[in-house]
Structure formats: C-alpha cells, structure tokens
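Long-time lurker, finally posting.

We've been working with PilZ domain-containing protein (Corallococcus aberystwythensis) and I want a structural starting point before designing mutants. I don't trust myself to interpret raw outputs, so I'm hoping someone here can both generate the structure tokens and explain anything notable. Sequence follows.
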Amino acid sequence: MMRSQNQEPSASPVNQGGSVVLATSPTTNGAAARRRGVLTMDGGIPASSKFRHAIEFGSGDALRNVIPLPPAEAALDDSGYSLHGTGPTAITCSVGRPDAVLGDVTRLSPTVVWVAPRQPLADTAESRTFPVYLACNGTTIGPLNGAFIRTDSDVPNAPVGLQLVGVTMEQGRQILGFLSDALRQGVAVPAASALPVQDIIDDPERIRSIFTAICAAGNKGVLRRQGRVVRMVLERFHSATGQLEWRTEDSTPDFGEPSYDIDVIGYNSAYRLRAEEGRSEGDRLFTALPAQLFRIRHRWHRRVAAPEGVHARFHHPLWREQGLLRREVLDMSFSGLCMRCQPQDLLFPGLLPPLIELELGDGQRVSVRGEIRYVSGLRADGTVLCGLSVLPYSSDEARWVRFVSQTMSPATRTSEGLVEELWDLFNRSGFFSLGGSSPEEFEELKNNFASLAKRAAEVPQLFCNAVWPSERGIEATLSFTKPYRHAWLGHQVAKRPGKPPEGLKEAGAIMRDLYLRTFEHPQSDPDFHWVVAYVEALNPWINKAHVKYAQRQMQAGSSLAFTRKIQKMKAFSHELTGRVHPYTVGPATPGELSLLAATVAQQFPECYVQSLDLTRDRLDMGPVTAKWKSFGMERERTVLVARRDGVPCAAAVVELGQLGANLFRLLDNTRLFSLLGDGTRAYSALLDAARRWYAARNRPSFLYLREDEGGDYVQECGLHDGPDPYLWIISSKLVPDFLEHISELTIGRRGAHSR
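Top reply, 14 upvotes:
Generated this for you. Predicted structure of PilZ domain-containing protein:
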C-alpha cells in the first residue's frame, strides 16, 4: 500500500468499497495524547506524523479509502470539536439502545465520540461493535456503528472513546448539525486548534518599535469592550506625545467608555494592549502607548493571499459520493492554506484528505496531503472558510517550495537565471573586497558558482539563493544553505551601494523582502532547528539586526541564541609548517569522539553544540554527507586527533563543502579543540594534517575558525590573518520573532506615519 518516495500519487477515480474510518481523538484536554508522546507543533502538524503524513500512497484504493486505524492509533489523533455544554446544550451518548445513556459527549466528530461516563463500565472490549446513539434537545441520531477505543481504565471517570465505523453521509450531516448548533451556542471549540502562546513585552523601546512598524504597515485592529467590537487601524503613532491614533470605518462608531482591550496584528503575531484611558473624536480614538504589550503568537508560518486562480481538488475521505470537490484557495503558507467551501461539503477539524491536487495556474499542479484544522461558521455569502495544514508529496516538494516562496515574496526571485548580474552585484557592493580579499581571487570559483546557482532552485532541500531585481539589475542578494543536520547557514549578503531604484517607496523594503524569503525558506524543512551565520558587526544595520538581537536574547537568559566574535584565518594547503611534531595524528577512535563531544559540551553552550553537529551521535555528519551526495554534491567531515604517547591531546574537526556553495569557502573550515590543559601545543601538528587532507581533495586553501583568544600557536601554525566576524546562532523557534524584529527595523524606516 505504500509507495516509494519518487512515485506520483494516482488521481484517477475508483469505486469506494468497505467501511471508511479516520483517525480519532484523545481525551478532552489532550493530556492522554501528551502522555503517549503526541505533541502538536505551531504549524498544526502533529509531531507523531509517521502514520498520517509519512505514508505516501500508490494505490488509488488507498488514496480514496482511509484505512481503519487500530484502537491504540485511533485514540491519538485530534478530530472534531471539544464540547462543554450542560443541560439542554449537552449532547448525550447511548450504547446498545437509545435509553441506555452512557454520559455527556466531551468530543465529537463523524468518526469519533468521547464521553464522560456517568458510572463505571464493566465491558469496554475493543473487538466488538454495537449500536451508538447521540441525542440533543429531543433529537436522536442512530443507530451508528461503534467500537470502544482503548482508554485509561485505571483513571476514575476517565473519558471513554468510541470509534464510529461506516457512518453514512446523512448521519454525518446530522452529527455536524449538532456541532453547528453547539458552536452557535458557544459550547464547542475545534479540538485540533492549538492554544496561542503568550508573552509579555515591557521594554519601552521595543514597544515603540512594534507600534511604529504596525502603524507603517496599516494592519488591522479590534477594540473589545463589554461585548462591543469595533474594527480599527492604527492611523498614526504620535512619538512626541506617546499617543496612538486609531481610525475606524464604522459609520457610527461607538467606542464607549474606557477601559479598552485592543488586539492588533503585527508581522506574524497578534498583540493585545489594555488602555485604561482614551478619548474619541468622530471616527478616531486616541489611547496612550501602553507600558505592557501582550503578544499572542498565532502562526509559525506567515500566510499571504493566494494568487488568483489557485484551486484545490479533492474527494471527501469519508463520503466519496460527493464527487470531486474543487474549491478556491484564499491564502497559503509553506504548511497551510485556506479554502472557500460550501456547508454541504461536510468538512470538520481532524479530517485527513490523503490527496489534494492544487491547481497553481499555467497548467501546473502540486499534490499535497492535509489535515483540516478549522472550519468557520456560515458566512454572509453562504460559504464557510476551511483552514488546512498541508505537506507536499516528495515528488512535488521542490515545485511547492518555489511556488509558495514566490507567492510570499513576489518582489524577490531565485538567482539561477541571473548569474552574470549577481556577479556584477558582488563587484559593485564590495563583497569581493571583504576581509582584505580582491576580486581576482574569486575568478577561479566563478564557473563553480554559476553551475551551483543554476542547480540551487531545483534543490530547495539544501539551498535558497534569493535576489531582489529591478530594471537596473540586481539590487541585493542573500543566500541560505543547509550544511548541518538541523541548521541552515545564512551567507553571501550583498546590496548595491547608493540610492535605491526609482519608485521604491520604502528604504528598507529590499532587505526586508530578502530576509523574509530566505529565513522563511528553512521553515519548510521538518529538521530545521537552528540558523547559523558569520556576520560583520562593522556594518551598523547588520550589527543592530543580528548581533544586538542575539545579545538581547542572551541577556534575557535565553538558551535559544548565541553570538561571539571569532576570527576567520586563512590556511593554504601547500604551506606546511616544516616543524617536526612530537605528536602522531590520525582519525579519531570512538572513545576519542566521545571525549571530544564531552569537551565541547563543557566549553560551549548547547545551541553551539547542537547547531554545528558536535554531539557524539552527529560528529561524523553521515546523514548530511549522504544527503548532499544524493544530489551529486560534496559535503564531508573528518575528526583528526593529535596524540602523544597514545594520549589524545587535541582534535581538529575538518569539513569540506561543494565548490561554489560559498564564495569564501565557508564550508571548507577547520575547528580546533584542546583535550588537555596544554593541548594547544598540538595545534600546528593538526593543521599540517588538515593541510594534507584538503590537498588530497584538491582544495588549495581552507578557513581556520579561531574561537579562542589565540596565542603562540597562531604564529607557529603559519596562519594568515582574516576578518573577525561574529558567529551568530538562533533557534528556529526564534525565527518568527526575529523576522518581526527585521520587519520593525525596515518598516519603521518609513517616516510619514509617525509624528
């Protein structure tokens, strides 16, 4: 039933046969799911995706008929709505006959029922099925065919799960009718919806920066006061008086008397402020800049409006008799989309369409699988909005990433067709002169760079080379590549000097667009945990955007960011020191690898160790090497150890990357670690061994990344001085916040909206 990673899923219609069952839900509060190891990520895709999302189907039968899950699996999945109605708003469940009430329903969908039993159950055998009835306000649905799901029988009054089998379309419509009533009465919430994460911002400079950016972007806001809702936008931020000026389009606005709760949208966060005072003038409301701001993270991925003409085609996983559904896509991100649907589509949270074909326009199609996460109430036009988390099939991954990237950052594009223009930008910007280099030194890499730039767009799993073009050429560029198991490297940033192109209204738009495109690109990678960069703090903007941001995180005690000044020193492979070394150097033994990993873990923070694959299980970078090799590219690491009388004294972590991946050969780098108190004395022996290693691989030079205070060994090793950038590391968890920070720095450069 499974298909290989390179097969295309079939979309031809087939006859539906047999009972169809979907994965179902755990307890009302999700505690059982957490105990069993199911975690929900911000993007909405469960971490336990092996069953749902790792299987790619080759048979049409498997695509159209969702395979019934065993009870243990069925109990782990989110589906439907959590209910908390009482009395007339409660839905009850009966087993065997309509009057044999088991208890009140706490979670419900057309595939699963969870019930709070009114008394202990004597028999919850999973092997048999029996009639199930649902009732609310005098209306009964049933008999349905159900079976018990394994539950926590040792916990008193634990919810009892019932998996529903072979539910007809009419029965499904009735169940969703019950849920629609519960939603209108306010006693139901989608079971699959993740709770937002909140934090408090009380730094005055940060609050001013946020509101400056929100004001410039013209984002929406909502005022809530004693049930009253007024939709507004932040028109101006009066910096001199610290007042926020809000405007509403309501013809007869009724702001009421303070205090006010106001929610407003930033780049990818919802902010809430409490205004104890305020005054209104017609369609305007004036409030003071708050001392505290509450942030509610509402999306891991930024969403943007879908291009006109994008549609989703799919069959309902439960009721194929509905035929092929074709629905308009309204917005999208790397991991999700929103469709305009009809109430009669009978969609509900937790439903898992195994094949959705997206029509992208120009005859292009991409196949994804998805999970419905949200279904809105009935809208004025008679439609409902349906939000899904989606994952592309592996055969369509590159097309999906390219399409979403271009949709989200339309002013940018990939560089494969602009190699000459890109080379010209590097010359104009002074990029080739960084660190005392000269443009002539890079000519030998031009062919390698051009070849890789043309391939990079086809390998989004490893590369993102983005440019911001204009009529006069490329204005700026920024690249990402994936050199480690869980980390992406940001590099090769360059910007045309002088004035921006004519017609550009925002001075910061170029860099903001590039940062959004490149930093969002790794978010489509499920193994993405870290961003690494080597940034030059002499540039004021880079210093504020990168170094100051990481330092602020570190000062706050965060373990999710790290920055430290290092030195990139150049070593030529042919320049052996000529010294007679009292050490023997060779590949590390398993015991020495363990010693090295323990030493690095003691000397450096965890984010350094994790991001650079310096943990014991990842020191050899085997999976990374294999992945690069699968695309016909080089990536290699060796650990060399210097020993004296059999005792390990120091180690060199020696790496190599594909030529052209970075023009300064950042991937051809060596790090040295002392394993004893005087281990630095062995560094010259290790660097001579490294020179031989690189020479055997036709590398004329490499970088030594000096991360200590230096000393006599630097002179002994025959190293050449180089620039001293900051090593910069942030967790993927901080990327949304970092992009919010970049948005504030760049959008905030507009001046017209604040006074």
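Before you design anything, note these points.
The first helix runs from residue 31 to 35.
DSSP finds 16 helices and 37 strands in the chain.
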